Amino acid sequence: MKYLPANALAKIATMAVALFFIFPFGQITVMAADNPDATIDGLKAKFVDVNGIRTRYYEYGKGEPVVMIHGGAQAAATTANVFSRNILGLAKHFHVFAMDRLACGMTGNPKDDADYNQQGEVNFIYAFIRTMKLGQVHLIGHSAGGGLVFYLAVQHPEIVRTLTILAMGPEDPPSGPTKLDAMLKKCADQTQYEGLKCRLGLLAWLPDTFPDEYWEADRQMSNQPKSKEARAKLAVGTGKLNDFPAWRKQMWDRARLDGVLQMPVLMVAGKNDIIDWGENDATANLQAELGLFDIVAAKNVKVQMIVYNNGGHFMYREHPEQFNQDYINFVDYWEHHLSGAPPMATGPLQ
Questions:
Q1: How far is CA 291 from CA 209, 260, 295, in A?
Q2: Do the beta carbons of residue 97 and residue 65 sit within 8 Å?
Q3: Structural domains in the chain plus CATH codes
Q4: What are the tens digits of pLDDT across the range 77-123?
Q5: At what angle do helices 244-256 and 118-131 cross, to 10 degrees?
Q6: DSSP string spanning 251-291?
Q7: What is the sign, positive or negative, of the torsion defined by CA atoms of 11, 12, 17, 21?
Q8: Residue from 53, 64, 159 nearest 116 by CA
């Protein structure tokens, strides 16, 4: 009998610890180690220090900067990975930046607990843009991220070249119980990852919206100690704004009364989005999103809305090529027609 040298045995032992084997029918399944940057779809992440907080982001392309802000609550099951199907396509025309929000994904938690709220997040996104020296940017925000880019545009309109809001978010006027409210009853506690994952899955309209690779990276990020710490703080109301409805109304009034949003604005909705589908309605009437449209368009004629059929809350991810082309067309049109915007009508036709 021949014996292996000690160093060879040590290597084999190390490999055995690193791999997990299952032998149901003589097959071997190898479980891959976690991706340290939690990237997906072949993308490569970068990191930058933003006011002392390590921030993960994707950066691709050249040209005018586009900053993409994902949705979900802080430390929830949504990160910049949600734009993985759009980044490379848009990067053929723009310099694309997609960042993990404050306390989300691989980005660190706030240094100050007072920043666990919408204003803290707006300040952080603004700081990211300043840190990267981007100047004027095209802003894209999805769901809760759509609310953040809306608030940011209201507070800092001078840095926003165009504004794009995807799906319903907390910036929309409330519209009553929805299909989602009833469906959430089957999900676990929303302070736990399984509950957050369940909610995200409900909002997906097409079966391939979130493949296994997405969930594996998402679970990895959500199980980090810093993510659990952030969820625990949010669960007890750390940093919560004292009166969010009043704060939001101030943002609305600056748009509909003061007209601070004069940049081109695109709103995109999924016709099958259960978060904006009334509980007793036969089809989604998009009441909340149309309510925001009226607010933004009250003193801005450069506002458009696209509705995707067979698309849910993640319509841009479910129809990436179509969305990318529509977005490119939107930006291109207003790049060439800003000076030719029609005058605002004073009232209905008589």
A1: 27, 18, 7
A2: yes
A3: 34-338 (3.40.50.1820)
A4: 799 999 999 999 999 999 999 999 999 999 999 999 999 999 999 99
A5: 50
A6: HHHHHHTS----S-EEEEEETT-GGGSBTT-SS---HHHHH
A7: positive
A8: 53
